[in-house]
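General statements about sequence and structure are easier to judge against a single worked case. For one protein, we set the task of working out the structure tokens from the amino acid sequence alone. This step matters because it turns folding into a mapping between discrete strings. The amino acid sequence and the backbone structure tokens for this protein are reproduced below.
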Amino acid sequence: MPHCAKFRKRKPIRLTLYGCAFSCLVLTGWLALNFAGVPWFWIGAAAVGLALALLASDRNKDGKARWGWFFIACCCATFTLLELVCYIQYNKTHATQIFEPPLEAFIKDDPVLGYTLQPNACTHVSWISRGRRVHEATYTTDAHGLRAGPSRRGDRGRPVVFMGCSITFGSGLEDEQTIAYQVEELTAGRYQCYNLGVFGYGTHQCYAQLKNGFVDEVLGGEYPRAIIYQAIIGHASRASGRLPWNCRGPRFILDDQGVLRYCGTLEQARRQAWQGRSVLGRWAATAIAESFIKKVLYNRFHLSDAESRRLQIGLIEGMREEIVRRYPGCEFHVVFWDCPGLDRRYNNWFADQVRQRAIGLHRIRDVLPNYEQDWVQYTVAHPFDNHPNASAVARLARYIIGHVLKDGEYSADGEIAD
């Protein structure tokens, strides 16, 4: 009886001890998430300290230490160390893009596409890593809000339209290094090339550009010779709204009959899903997003899901149908940038799906020598920016002239002339 009474007396003290430890952890978490640069490192360190403190002060009914706290401290220490390693790795491979004037002055909201480029705008972009400029470029737009092309607009050649994301836009490249600019220059203006690419865009926005008449507006009633869409597997996740940084733009779904249906915007769907979460769920999602473990692992191991990939193919088929309906005789081609990451397992699947729909497909692995083995040589500033560099785009431009437009000196079969 005396032993049981002693244990019952110790129980309220233990609960008070646990409550104080939990309160300290919550306070540390709030301070770290709001004021610290690496919040989860400090949260983990606080958890280690509290677990060791409990190991030293908490006793079981026999008066012995509760070694479970030691196990918890080890787990928290492992997490803290991993968070620190991921933070270091992230800073080694990440560069902050600084826009001058700011990015907000270069883009504008759009009710259909989510956002577009400001017309007649110019911005200079610097990639800064650990206080050092690792790359820079200048972006200019024309009166339509498209990436600027050659100034030669007197002799209007037949239009060629390029669609896509930052690859088509030419992130990290000067205006004259972009795909549309180079094709027009190499053909001496026989084709007037329009660059409809916008950084961050997915297949859903390219489809909407056609469906809602934006391409018609740019072309001014002319029929294009060809429309070329540069695709990546990552466009699938953008189209389904699965990426946290890209929730703007139209939302499409495939119904049971495989027909595309417009369902409002991705932002509306994300807002509804967010409101459906509990307060704790919202806080947890916001807090986890600050973890460098998540940032590094998500960027490296994120995979597109099957539903998103099917939607992407449906949108590409929808693009083809819109082109056939609006521009009789216009060719539609897909330039596919084979994914070098984990999603590469779906490269062949994507290529097969496009070919089955009788759409012209051109895989970048067949354009750039040794691309699959050494894709880094074709990047703007690896590891800070892995967009295609000027050399890769120049080779692709010659390929398009020869194998898509079948024009002039580049139309010969065999190797592409350098």
About this structure: The longest strand covers residues 132-140. The longest helix spans residues 2-35.
